[in-house]
Amino acid sequence: MPPEGSAGQPRTELDARYSSALNPRPGAADVTATEWAEAERQMTAAEIFWLSTVRPDGRLHVTPVIAAWHEGVLYFSTGKEEQKARNLAQDSHCALTTGGNALGSGLDLVVEGRAEPVSDPAVLDEVVAAYEEKYGPHITSPEGSFHGIGDAMRKGAVVVFAVVPGTAYGFGRREGVFTHTRWTF
Predict the structure, then answer these.
(1) 56-91: b or e for each residue (b if 16 or more CB lie within 10 Å)?
(2) Average of pLDDT values for 106-124?
(3) What is the CA radius of gyration of the chain?
(4) pTM confidence score
């Protein structure tokens, strides 16, 4: 039961200005927008995301987080007193970024939206289940890096945020061919 307004099928468009469609290198003439299903597949598999928030004085704050893509919503959590939680209490706009660091291959994703706190116990149970399925022993094993996070989510010891994409971007690279896809919800 995701929060109201979960992402459905977005409008997908290739931005040729930033893609190889305008560059005459081999394979560029056939470049197409990345399908949203591929972006969802990568968000489901990605272990680390970079969360960008805005401090009250306008400076940016960027930090790595673990997150779970579940039913059209990207979920992450943080301690109530952490900088990102304080920033989001003042301005819920944020971006979550994931991808690779290779110049010649991969798909980098940026999801922009508003981070809304989640308190519904049924949704929290689904988020915990999504985290456990995705991160396995990192969460379920007593030796895991994030062991206990599920209980902390359920008890409200940490804040769980839901980000429904407003706009998302995909920057693809394969064999020297680049794509820039925009998904609008």
Answers:
(1) eeeeebeeebbbbbbebbbbbbbeeeeebbebbeee
(2) 97
(3) 17
(4) 0.91
